[in-house]
Amino acid sequence: MHLFNTLGRHMEPFSPVRRDMVTVFTCGPSVYQRAHIGNFRTFLFEDILVRYLMYAGYRVQRGMSLTDVEDKAIAEAERKKMTLLQLTSRNIEDFLREMNFLRMKEPDFLPRASEHVEDAARLTRALVQKGYAYWHGGNAYFDPLTFPDFGRLFGLDMSRWPRKKRRFHRDTYPGVQWNRGDFILWHGYKPGDPCFWDTEIGRGRPAWNIQDASMISHFFDETLSIYCGGIDNLYRHHDYTKAILESVRGAPMAKYWLHCNHLFVRGEKMSKSEGNVIYTDTLCAKGYDNRDVRFFLIDGHYREKMDYDDALMDLAVQRLRNCRRLVGRIRRRAGKRYTREHGMADAIRHAFARHMDNDLRVRDGFDGVVNVISSVNAASLHPHEARSIINALREIDEVLQVIF
């Protein structure tokens, strides 16, 4: 199995950090708003990754963060005249429901940032003590110039990083790719702040930049095998997280970094500001079911941009339903047991693994399986032969979750 490692920008044979367990952590949703299908494209790529690792025989332990404390969430709660907890809890409920709808495997750990404030406080204190961060005006800031490997993931030219001291005190700056200066770790309390905790470093709240690192450090005390997220996280966020955790631990945060590309709508990036956001129930209202939606979002290579329009959706659904018709014919011939493997079952497994082992090429793997079963004359199969083929397809569908 080979994966494209963003850290270094090349394909690498996969070899986990630990022999007995593949540890995976993935950026989950920022729950100031409901997740749309563009978000779920990334989450489904991560689901396919975990399921395929298990299919390949690995034990996997996975965490996914839920970002429920950040500037955007606080502002959205105030706008809607809700508490932060009311807003984020509702959106988390929607997210979990839609995860189940899309047949996603729930991660072993699904922490909320608000549950790990003390972890963030401890990390902040450690970074200050080690000289990577400092206090200013009640806030704590990380100085990227103190971390020699900063920007490696994105590929920043740090020789162009300004030496003049600049501090960025917001969690995010929409429309700005890089904040060339010191980024905030901890928002110190200011009178009237609606969201704060009393911690060992004082009253305040963790900045968005430190939250993933705090959750990872709580559940995993070693280098992760894989860290995942959307390609937009290559701007600032993942290099920030990497710098924070590696500064404290003195060891690599993750061995492999995988990033999923954007979903576009008729050539435009899906976003609320563009007014082109599509939700799962938008597609259900058009007559698609959960397997249709899941298949469309996994059908295509995760590192390539993907476009949504109704015609493309219909083409994907036609391919899926054609596959299910072929499987249905074989299934009707299948007995309840089989006495030996049919050669076609091994051909199906090989067609799938050959493409999935090449950086998770789901479309090619799916089409390879369909090509094999298209050549089967279902009417001529003995029941045990048909059962052998169906068993192989069920194994594959533990990964895809779209056939049965």
Structure description:
The model has no long low-confidence stretch (mean pLDDT 95). The chain has twelve helices and 15 strands. 42% of the residues lie in helices and 16% in strands. The protein has two domains: 2-260, Rossmann fold, CATH 3.40.50.620; 285-400, no CATH class. With 404 residues, the protein is of the alpha/beta class. Helix 4 crosses helix 5 (208-219), helix 8 packs across helix 9 (310-333) and helix 10 (343-356) packs parallel to helix 12. Strands 5, 6, 7, 8, 9 and 10 form a six-stranded mixed β-sheet that branches. A four-stranded parallel β-sheet has the order 4-3-11-12, covered by helices on one side. Strands 14-13-15 form a three-stranded mixed β-sheet. The longest helix has 24 residues, at 310-333.
Order of helices and strands: EEEHEHHHEEEEEEHEHEEEHHEHHHH
Report the average pLDDT across residues.
95
Q: State the share of residues found in helices, binned by percent.
A: 40-55%
Question: How is the CATH topology of the largest domain named?
Answer: Rossmann fold
Distance between the termini: 26 Å
Query: Any idea what the radius of gyration is?
Result: 23 Å
Q: Looking at the structure, what is the overall shape? A: elongated
Number of domains: 2
Roughly what fraction of the amino acids lie in strands? 15-25%
